[in-house]
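Notes to self after the Tuesday call (sharing in case useful).
The group wants a holo model before anyone commits to mutagenesis around the pocket. I volunteered. Ligand is magnesium ion. Logging inputs and output together so the record is complete.
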Amino acid sequence: MPKNEGPGKGNVLKAVFLDRDGVINRNIDKGYVTEWRLFEFLPDSLEALAHIKKKGLLAVLITNQSCINRNLVPKENVDDIHKCMLAEIERAGGKLDAVYMCPHRPDEGCACRKPRAELLERAMRDFKLSPDEVLFVGDHERDRGAAEAAHCRYDQVSERRSLFEITKEWLD
Ligand SMILES: [Mg+2]
Ligand SMILES: [Zn+2]
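Result:
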């Protein structure tokens, strides 16, 4: 197998970038996580984040939250949700090294909303990572599109495959 390709090549990876909704926490049907009590960690996601940390990789959140500019939730509330989320993750032995968020609605045509690459590119620049050192894990074709646009590796959570299973495949 050529070097750097596919799961099991965690030796070259330095960071796991993660989408939030549907990867770390449960997606809300046709809605948004507007407050902390609606934030429900998916089974295994806390273990997955602890595993990423144990393996010495960075973990970076890359999330679209158009609920902010749709005026469904103030940005301060989303920041509060992230504060609580980070605390829970650390309590479980994991860490999120940074949070990158696009607050825009699709019709605003911003450069940062996935499937555009900007959030991933910004994170790679800030952490001095090259695309082949980054695995992006999402749950939607928008995430796959962003990974392709940024030339990162990509894997997708589904009902059959949790974040923990994916991180074990790539990092062990
Ligand atoms: Mg998602
Ligand atoms: Zn944006």
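Two things stood out.
The chain has one domain: 15-171.
Helices lie at 45-54, 75-91, 118-126, 141-150, 163-171.
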